[in-house]
Amino acid sequence: MLGLLYEGIEGVTLFDSWEQREEILKAIAAAPREEPILLLGHGCPSGLYDMRYGLVIRNSDAELLKDRPNLVGIWCYASDYAYANGLKGFFSGMFISEEPEAWVNGVDASEEEVDEKVWDFSGRMGELIRSGKPLAEVAAELMDPKHIDSELTRFNYSRLTWRPTGTEPLPPGSAREMYSV
Fold first, then answer.
1. Under 8 Å CB-to-CB from 61, ≥6 apart: which residues?
2. Do residues 64 and 31 touch, judged by C-beta distance below 8 A?
3. CB neighbours (10 Å) of residue 59?
C-alpha cells in the first residue's frame, strides 16, 4: 500500500530489505540534503524494521537523517523515533494498518475498513508528493481534519506530526506517553 507514495516518481531508488542495510545507509549519506527521503514500512520507536530480521534504520543511524528538511517516516511510532533523535519532517505515530492493530488499540474497524483507509491515505499522500508541493503543504493537507471520517481515521490522523524544526513535541498517543519508553 505504501508503494503509492512513490509510484510514478522518476529517479526513485527503492530498498526493501534488511539485507540492503549498508546500501541504504550509503544512499542516504550520498543523497543531496534537499532530496526527499521516504522511510516506509513497519517499525517501532527505535526505528524502521524488516519484519524478518530486525532494525534497518536504528537510533545510531539518526545522524545521517539530521538536518534533512524533506524526511518522511511512515511507520508505527516514527514520530517517537524523530522526537528522540531531533529529526525534521513528516512522521506518523502509531498508525493502524492491519485489523489486529485496531483491536489492540481499542479501535472498532474491520480489515476491509483498515485496508480502504490505508490505501486512501497512501494514494492521497502519493498524489501530494507527486504534485511537487513543499513537504510542509503536503503535511498540512494530510493532517487536515476534513479527512477524519471514522474512529480509525481519527486514531491515525491525530498521530501524524509535522516537525519543521526538529524540536516539536510528540503528538498524542506516542509510545513514550503510553509505555514510558
1. 25, 28, 47
2. no
3. 13
Residue-wise pLDDT for 141-172, tens only, equals: 999 999 999 999 999 999 999 999 999 988 77
Neighbours of 140 (CB within 10 A): 14
**Residue 108 CB coordination number (10 Å):** 10
Is residue 67 a contact partner of residue 32, using CB atoms and an 8 Å limit? no
Q: Name the phi and psi angles at 74, rounded to 5.
A: -115, 95
3-state secondary structure 44-57: ECCEEEECCCEEEE
Bridge-partner residues for 40, per DSSP? 74
Question: What would the pLDDT profile of 105-120 be if each residue is shown by its tens digit?
Answer: 999 999 999 999 999 9
The Cα–Cα gap between 84 and 59 comes to: 8
> In angstroms, rounded to a whole number, what is the distance separating the alpha carbons of residues 172 and 76?
13
Give the ranges where the chain is alpha helix by DSSP (H). Answer: 21-30, 62-65, 78-85, 99-104, 111-130, 135-142, 151-157, 175-179
